[in-house]
Amino acid sequence: MSLPKAELHLHIEGTLEPELAFALAARNGVTLPFADTEELRHAYSFSDLQSFLDLYYALMAVLRTEQDFADLADAYLARAAGQGVRHAEIFFDPQAHTARGVEIGTVVEGLSRALERSEERYGISTQLIMCFLRDEPAASALETFEAAGPHLHRISGVGLDSAEVGNPPAKFREVYELAAAAGLRRVAHAGEEGPAEYIREALDVLGVERIDHGLRCLEDQELVARLVREQVPLTLCPLSNVRLRCIDTLADHPLRRMLDAGLLVTVNSDDPAYFGGYVEDNFTALRDALGLDRETLRTLAANSFKAAFLDEPRRRALL
Ligand code: ES4
Ligand code: ZN
């Protein structure tokens, strides 16, 4: 039986399974550069973050209408329910769609159509987190924030994702200041492929409340001490780390060391359609590779509710 848990690091575009990609391609008259799902799956051998991102952005060509985004989110929520997910904070990448001529309103309203029914259908409460693509100019993030204005009531926070190295958090100081002023929560990917210094910068310059990945904090003991002291949550994605070669094998994952150090770590799925598993699959794979006992798994599930942007009554109900 899977433990009840919150999913805090999940890119909705990364839940696009090959079968749904081909169904949407047919529905929208889009031609994919792959003959069938079999051929597409062969493209899923990545050497680093960039090689994954190239495929991730290419497949999004099939997402065109509000209904496409609603279908994508509903398919994720149905699977998440089967993996013990009771609360999901869902990333989306508006610039990956607006760059193709799909309006941000189509994306947000489409996703919201599925999220609105999630509690009643699946028992999963949800929030949306709008991510800025850090390999695009800061001006593009600012334009995106402005375009999101009419939809901000549907968005609870902002995040930062895509190619990390060479795109430090400080590049996005201004848009994060606007987000904070609008009352939005703030998170950022940092320390996935980028250095520990990017984690510190995300905290100090962007004022983030959680770090997505954060794996490379371990290279800086002073930073680890701070993350422990301030109990800054780190949303780890173990299967992603292996598939993108941040670590060699799951047996090398430093999760146990991080827990022992007192870090508030959570386990998440990142881009489950691409990385070989949803959130419970990440729990199970870690358990098998590291020999985690039931108590440790319970701690990880409890951490996910502690780290979530839940209101207190719902948090108490879920913990
Ligand atoms: C991502 Cl694994 C990962 N890292 C950074 N940005 C991303 N966007 C989607 N998946
Ligand atoms: Zn991610």
Automatic annotation (TrEMBL):
Residue numbers binding Zn(2+): H9, H11, H189, D270
UniProtKB keywords: Hydrolase, Metal-binding, Nucleotide metabolism, Zinc
Identification of the protein by name: Adenine deaminase
Summary of the function given for this chain in its UniProt record: Catalyzes the hydrolytic deamination of adenine to hypoxanthine. Plays an important role in the purine salvage pathway and in nitrogen catabolism.
Domain Adenosine deaminase, residue spans: 4-319
Cellular component aspect of the GO annotation: cytosol
InterPro entries the UniProt entry points to: A_deaminase_dom, ADE, Ado/ade_deaminase, Metal_Hydrolase
Chain coiled-coil ranges: none
Site (Important for catalytic activity): H213
Catalytic activity: adenine + H2O + H(+) = hypoxanthine + NH4(+)
Entry's family note: Belongs to the metallo-dependent hydrolases superfamily. Adenosine and AMP deaminases family. Adenine deaminase type 2 subfamily.
Binding site for substrate: D271
Cofactor(s) needed by this chain: Zn(2+)
